[in-house]
Amino acid sequence: MLSALDRRHTVAPPGYSRWLIPPAALAIHLCIGQVYATSVYKNSLIAHFDTGQTAIGVIFSIAIVMLGLSAAVAGTWVEANGPRKAMFVSACFWAAGFLVGALGIATKQLWLLYLGYGVLGGIGLGIGYISPVSTLIKWFPDRPGLATGLAIMGFGGGAMVASPLSRQLLSFYDPGYDPANAGSTASGSALVWLFLTLGVGYFVIMMFGVFNVRVPAADWRPAGFDPAKVAAKPLVTTANVSAANAVKTRSFWLLWVVLFCNVTAGIGILEQASPMIQDFFRDNGTSAVSVAAAGGFVGLLSLFNMAGRFVWSSTSDLIGRKPIYLVYLGVGMVLYVLLALVGQAATALFVLLACVILSFYGGGFATVPAYLRDLFGTFEVGAIHGRLLTAWSAAGVAGPLIVNAFLDAQGKPGTLTAAAYRPALFTMVGVLAVGFVANLLIRPVPERFHEPASGRDGVEDAAQPVTAERSGS
Amino acid sequence: MNEQAGGGQRVRLVVSWVVVSALLGYGVVQTVITAAKLFTH
C-alpha cells in the first residue's frame, strides 16, 4: 500500500499548480509546531503523575533530541522516497506519539509518555520538519526563500494554534479547570482526551498535506524562469552535492556554526522572555511589568518569531543568502548591545529590540534551506538540511545553559535587575560575532564534491527515484 | 483533461488555503489577544 506514496507515483501532471504545495507543507508544520506548546499542560501532568518539573520537562527534551536525530538520520530516506511517503510516515509517528502518550497518562505510566510523545512523536517531528523542504525548493527555484519561509513559518505558528486550543480543550473536558488561573490543573482524564483529540486531529490535517503534495516533473520550470539568471548570483551553484559529500565540505560546517550561533542567541531571549521583561523594569524589588503583561510580551515575541520566518526568508530571495545572514548576525549584535545598555530605559524600546531580535531568530531557521540550495544544489538538499538541524539541537542545549549559568551567578529569580543580564547578553554578542565571521568565510563548494553532471540538475530527480546507492559519495 | 486543468484544482487550491489560513488565523488572533495584555496591564 505504501508504494502508492512513492516519489514516482507523486510526479505532478502538466499544469498542476505549485501553489498547492505551500499549504501542503503548512499542514505538516502547523501540526508539528505543537511541540513548542507543551508548557500549557505541563503543570497538569506534574499533578497527575505526582512528580517534579524535571521528570515532565524531559518529555520535551526527548522530543527535540529525537527531532534532530531523526532529521539527520532519515534525511536521505526522505529524499529517496519523496515528500508524500515522508509526510505520511511523519503523520503516523506524530499521531502515534499522542495516542501512546494518552495510554501512558491513562495508566499513569510515565515511561509510556516518554516513549510516545518523546520518542515516537520526536521521530514524527524530525521527518515532518524536513519532508516538504526540498520539494518546495524544486517547485520554487525562482523564490526558494519565500517557499521555505512559508512552510517554516507554519512551525512557528503551530505553537500559536496549539497553546490556546489545548487550554480550551482542557476546559471543555474538565469544567473545573481554569486556564486563567496559573495554579489550576486539569484532571488526568481531561489530559487523556486532549492527547487523543490532538492525535486524531493532527493526523487528519496532515493527510491534507499528504493528499496535495506532488514533486515537479523532470522538465518542469516555472513560467518565465531562467536558471542561468539564478546561477549568475554569487554563491549560487547549478551543480549538485550529495548529503554524504556535503558534510565533508568546509561550507557545511561554517553554515552549521552560523545556524548554531543564531539559534543560541535567540533562544537566550526566548527561554527567559517572561522573567526578563519583569527583571529589566524592577525597582526596589517590585517589577513595573505585571505577570499578565509579561505573558503578553511572550505572545508578541511569538508573532515576530513567526513573521520573521516569512518576511526575512522572502527578502533573502532579493538580496541573497549571505547578506541576509550578515544582517541577522551583524544587526543582531548591535541590537543585543543596545538591549544590554539601554534596554531598561523604556518598555517600548525593550520590546522593540527583543521583537526584532526574535524576528532574526525565526528568519535564520527559514532561510537556511535556501542557503543550502544555493551552496549544494537541489539533489539532496532535504537530507543536508536534516544533518544541519543538529546545530538546532546543540543550540537548544547551549543557549539556555549560557543564560541560566550567568543568571544563577547574579542572584535568585525574582530579585534580578537589568544589570544582571548584561554578562549573558554580551556573551550572546560574542556568539553572534563568531557566527558573523563564519558566514563571511563561506565559499562555493569545490568541484571535487560535485555529483557527475548527467541527470543531476536537481529537478530531474523528481521523475526518478533516488536510491541510497546513488546518494553515496 | 488532467486533474488540475479544470475547476477541480481551483476548488482544491481554495480549500487548502482556507484550511491553513483558518488554523493560522485562529493562532494569530488568540496570540494578539494575549499580546494585547502587554499594553493593557
From TrEMBL, chain A:
Instruction: Please provide the record's keywords in A-Z order.
Output: Membrane, Transmembrane, Transmembrane helix
Signal peptide annotation: none
Q: Cross-referenced Pfam families, in alphabetical order?
A: MFS_1 (PF07690)
TM annotation in the entry? 20-41, 53-74, 86-105, 111-133, 145-170, 190-211, 252-270, 290-312, 324-342, 348-372, 384-407, 419-442
Using the UniProt record, give the first listed, main subcellular location: membrane
Q: Where is the Major facilitator superfamily (MFS) profile domain?
A: 1-447
Q: Where in the cell is it found?
A: Cell membrane
Could you confirm whether the keyword Transmembrane appears in this record? yes
A single Gene Ontology MF term assigned here is: transmembrane transporter activity
Name by which UniProt lists this protein: Major Facilitator Superfamily protein
* Organism from which the protein derives: Micromonospora chaiyaphumensis
TrEMBL record, chain B:
Keyword field:
Membrane, Transmembrane, Transmembrane helix
The organism's place on the tree of life at top rank: Bacteria
Q: Which spans are transmembrane here?
A: 14-39
Tell me what this protein is called: DUF1146 domain-containing protein
The scientific name of the source species is Micromonospora halotolerans
